TrEMBL record:
<dbReference type="InterPro" id="IPR018490">
    <property type="entry name" value="cNMP-bd_dom_sf"/>
</dbReference>
<protein>
    <submittedName>
        <fullName>Cyclic nucleotide-binding protein</fullName>
    </submittedName>
</protein>
<dbReference type="Pfam" id="PF00027">
    <property type="entry name" value="cNMP_binding"/>
</dbReference>
<feature type="domain" description="Rhodanese">
    <location>
        <begin position="279"/>
        <end position="353"/>
    </location>
</feature>
<dbReference type="InterPro" id="IPR014710">
    <property type="entry name" value="RmlC-like_jellyroll"/>
</dbReference>
<dbReference type="InterPro" id="IPR018488">
    <property type="entry name" value="cNMP-bd_CS"/>
</dbReference>
<dbReference type="Pfam" id="PF00581">
    <property type="entry name" value="Rhodanese"/>
</dbReference>
<feature type="domain" description="Cyclic nucleotide-binding">
    <location>
        <begin position="158"/>
        <end position="262"/>
    </location>
</feature>
<dbReference type="InterPro" id="IPR050229">
    <property type="entry name" value="GlpE_sulfurtransferase"/>
</dbReference>
<dbReference type="InterPro" id="IPR001763">
    <property type="entry name" value="Rhodanese-like_dom"/>
</dbReference>
<dbReference type="InterPro" id="IPR000595">
    <property type="entry name" value="cNMP-bd_dom"/>
</dbReference>
<dbReference type="InterPro" id="IPR036873">
    <property type="entry name" value="Rhodanese-like_dom_sf"/>
</dbReference>
Length: 359
């Protein structure tokens, strides 16, 4: 089956342009579907660019907004390209029994980018295990095998704002560690050293609000989650203790690599002047200081979202808005911006905080 699909990929654009190695991987991730005469095979795709759909054989009628009808045949040159499922297409109908090939568009996009970045055909990326072993995985295997680098995460989560080249570099520099239930990975108050991704297992985040206070569990982290970013972004001490709830496997990136590969590209700083112009255009100020500091004084129109509440209140923010976060120095705001960016929000940081911008 995969060999047959591979042969098909060689006839479609831009799939034919992928390297042989990438095409082999893609062959296992796309679907060939038989559709009976009279059925609309694009029902789920019209105005929805989630999948690229190719006509393999048969006749498909496409109906467009301006009443134009086009008959596409499997052996037409036009059928070498994805069926145009944009907002102009209103309906389609199989005029004969047909066969189509479906591929997730995001996956395709990421693979095209990766392919163009790779220096060779089958360049294997390696991750070092702390027990001395090494595992080799291609970028596509990373996407398929671990939820940390799923297509969804690459498209809208922590890594969506990071250049693909940096993600490739991460694959090479990350270390994999095996962990056991009860193991403390991060201790509240310690100096930040690593950024972690959960490949397998669950962890508990607990915080003690005072020297003698008992720690309270504030969150549970699971496969695909990331943690340990706040101390690295803000240069503060670890704000919570993170303990393995079950046995598991983590990936970790040291502080220097984290700053270079993730923090720098994810955090965009803007001057007060640029920020004001953006706010006039609809962007929203977020003050990430404590509510007591906010109540004392704040930038007009700013909402207050203290750093330690950002995760709990992120669902109340609008994915389509642009937010400009600030504090006095830029430290807390950078940490908050990184957390918000991990949830896929459009966020910028007031460079140097209000203190620097005022002087
Ligand atoms: N409420 C929370 N929910 C999820 N993760 C948290 C929460 N509070 C702290 N953390 C994580 O725990 C980590 C402790 O180390 P850091 O301060 O570097 O970064 C912190 C966050 O990644």
């Amino acid at each position: 089956m995969t060999t047959a699909v591979l042969a098909l990929l060689n006839t479609f654009e831009p799939l034919a342009k992928l390297s042989a190695g990438r095409k082999r991987e893609l062959a296992g991730l796309c679907f060939v579907e038989k559709v009976s005469q009279g059925i609309n095979p694009l029902r789920m795709n019209i105005s929805n660019a989630k999948q690229a759909v190719y006509l393999i054989k048969g006749e498909l009628e496409l109906r467009f907004l301006n009443d134009e009808k086009v008959i596409l045949r499997g052996d037409d040159t036009a059928a070498r390209h994805p069926i145009p499922c944009d907002q102009n297409l209103v309906d389609s109908i199989a005029r004969t029994d047909i066969e189509i090939l479906r591929i997730d568009n995001d996956l395709l996009d990421i693979m095209m980018t990766w392919d163009q970045l790779s220096t060779g055909d089958d360049v294997l990326k390696s991750v070092h295990n702390t027990d001395g072993g090494k595992s080799n995985r291609t970028p596509v295997e990373w996407m398929r095998d671990t939820s940390v680098f799923s297509v969804a995460k690459l498209q809208s989560g922590v890594f969506s704002k990071v250049p693909v080249a940096n993600i490739e570099a991460m694959f090479e520099r990350m270390e994999r560690i095996s962990t056991v239930a009860g193991q403390v990975i991060i201790q509240q108050g310690a100096v930040g050293d690593y950024y972690y991704l959960v490949e397998r297992g669950s962890l508990l985040v607990s915080r003690a609000d005072g020297v003698n206070a008992a720690p309270m569990v504030v969150a549970e982290l699971n496969e695909g989650d990331a943690f340990g970013e706040e101390a690295l972004v803000s240069d503060n001490k670890r704000n919570a203790t993170v303990t393995m709830k079950t046995d598991g496997q983590l990936l970790r990136l040291n502080k220097r690599d984290f700053i270079e590969l993730l923090k720098e590209p994810m955090l965009v700083n803007v001057s007060r002047e640029v920020a004001e112009a953006m706010v006039a255009d609809g962007a929203i100020w977020i003050d990430v200081r404590l509510s007591s500091e906010y109540q004392y004084e704040h930038i007009k129109g700013a909402i207050n979202l203290p750093l330690n509440e950002v995760r709990q209140r992120v669902s109340g923010l609008d994915m389509n808005s642009t937010y400009i976060v600030y504090c006095q120095t830029g430290r807390r705001s950078s940490a908050a911006a990184f957390v918000l960016a991990q949830y896929g929000l459009n966020v910028l940081v007031l460079a140097g905080g209000t203190r620097q911008q005022a002087s």
